[in-house]
From TrEMBL:
This is Phosphomannomutase. It comes from the Bacteria. Residues 376-448 form the Alpha-D-phosphohexomutase C-terminal domain. Residues 7-136, 157-256, 266-371 form the Alpha-D-phosphohexomutase alpha/beta/alpha domain. NCBIfam families: PRK09542.1 (NF007088). PANTHER family: PHOSPHOMANNOMUTASE. Keywords: Isomerase, Magnesium, Metal-binding, Phosphoprotein. Belongs to the phosphohexose mutase family. SUPFAM superfamilies: Phosphoglucomutase, C-terminal domain (SSF55957), Phosphoglucomutase, first 3 domains (SSF53738). One of its GO terms (biological process) is carbohydrate metabolic process.
Length: 454
């Protein structure tokens, strides 16, 4: 029977409830389709700690091997560890994870050789069409000689590569609390941080895809509460929180206060520019803080503003030869990591910066956190286009305002800006606002919300 994959094949990945929306039989077809679309002789696959991940991964490997493709299984890994394997081995890769989604979900993040992204416009649509067709007609004809499936462990090599990109040899001793959220940070952090002058206080390092303590989504402030409390109790220098597949990293300072991902982007940008002789291009999406392009220019770099989303960031990284890119969602991209995102490398930069001077983290990041942001505010609306048009009409004739439509609508004035973007999957508008101070931000935030929610 033919299946409709429109609900699980997203813009950048595959994601859905197991076994209701997809299962191992479909995973096997995805493996075959990935093999056919990439045309690769060999691929690498890995998975997170979800209960369904090993079975789905094995099925995917079987599907690819049946078409004559050699498969290297690296087993339990973070998403950026899979990107490392794809880059170091120069092979297309598949990571089985649903990131921060609840336990019943699973998914696949796909990349071409060298960790180049696979999305709707770069192969995912063709993969979906093949799986849908084969689900109706039967699996494709197997190759005369099937591929091999072998196991490899890349964790130590991944850790060594990350540590080669940041000099941590002379940092002062630091105490760091790490909340892995029962996700893959519990697998990678001990190896990456081993041997460094750090006292690591682990939280929820036990791999458990049912997430018994809290959701592995640090973007939600509710999931940072345990870490904030522990940092304070331990009198730690900082705290780090990883999401389920450990590709994103959030930072809290010594007071337990969250550090804006824009401030982390600016800090890492300054360090990467220094490492590259004070020159280079830095990518930032259009809802990162004004602080980011300011810091980049101050340190000799060229800031480039892009749409929100990893496929746009990675494409711009490749086109411009950028050395680093950051997003408000705590995704950090590095040229020296095949333009892929790795929160772990960003965390090493923060540790190096903090440990290389004597002050607390709050004082260090103050130079990179110059404005007041609203955070992302979601509003359910009946007609996204109508509300955006209303905002455009309200500001179009104001002489102190500029409008642009790179991604949704951005309205900019001397002392503030805001962006409104439609969700691709829900009837939502997402508002991000920033001002030179709290009253300025609050005024424009409320003004925009009044129009959105009218």
């Amino acid at each position: 029977m033919a299946v409709d994959l429109s609900q699980i094949v997203k813009a950048y990945d595959v994601r859905g409830v197991v076994p209701d929306q997809w299962d191992e039989s479909l995973a096997e077809l995805f493996g075959a389709a990935f093999a056919q679309v990439t045309g690769a002789a060999a691929i690498v696959v890995g998975h997170d700690m979800r209960p369904s991940s090993p079975g789905l991964t094995s099925a995917f490997a079987r599907g690819a091997a049946a078409l004559g493709v050699d498969v290297t299984e690296i087993g339990l890994c973070s998403t950026d560890q899979l990107y490392y394997a794809s880059g170091a081995l120069n092979l297309p890769g598949a990571m089985f994870t649903a990131s921060h989604n609840p336990a019943q979900y699973n998914g696949i993040k796909l990349c071409r050789a060298g960790a180049a992204p696979v999305g709707q416009d770069t192969g995912l649509t063709e993969i979906r069409e093949l799986v849908e067709r084969w689900s109706e007609t039967g699996a494709p004809e197997p190759a005369a000689v099937p591929g091999t499936v072998t196991r490899a462990d890349t964790l130590n090599d991944y850790a060594e590569h990350l540590r080669s990109l940041v000099d941590l040899t002379s940092i002062r001793p630091l105490k760091v609390v790490v909340d892995a959220g029962n996700g893959m940070g519990g697998h990678t952090v001990p190896t990456v941080l081993d041997g460094l002058p750090l006292t690591v206080v682990p939280m929820y390092f036990e791999l458990d895809g049912t997430f018994p303590n809290h959701e592995a989504n640090p973007l939600d402030p509710a999931n940072l509460v345990d870490l904030q409390k522990r940092v304070s109790e331990e009198s730690a220098d900082l705290g780090l929180a990883f999401d389920g597949d450990a590709d994103r990293c959030f930072v809290v300072d010594q007071r337990g206060e969250p550090v804006s991902p824009s401030a982390i982007t600016a800090l890492v940008a300054a360090r990467e520019l220094a490492r590259n002789g004070g020159t280079g291009t830095i990518i930032h999406n259009l809802i990162t803080s004004w602080s980011v392009p300011e810091v980049v220019r101050e340190h000799g770099g060229t800031p480039v503003r892009t749409r929100v989303g990893h496929s746009f960031i990675k494409a711009e990284m490749a086109t411009s030869g950028a050395i680093f890119g950051g997003e408000h969602s705590a995704h950090y991209y590095f040229k020296d990591f095949w333009n892929a995102d790795t929160g772990m490398l960003a965390a090493l930069h923060v540790l190096a910066a903090l440990g290389g001077q004597d002050g607390p983290l709050s004082a260090l990041v103050a130079a990179y956190d110059r404005y007041t942001g609203s955070g992302e505010i979601n509003s359910t609306v009946a007609d996204q286009a109508d509300r955006i048009a209303a905002i455009k009409a309200a500001y179009a004739d104001r002489p102190d305002v500029t409008l642009d439509e790179l991604d949704g609508l951005t309205v900019t004035s001397t002392d503030w800006w805001f962006n409104v973007r439609p969700s691709n999957t829900e009837p939502l508008l997402r508002l991000n606002a920033e001002g030179r101070d709290e009253p300025t931000m609050a005024k424009i935030r409320d003004e925009a919300l009044a129009i959105i929610r009218a």
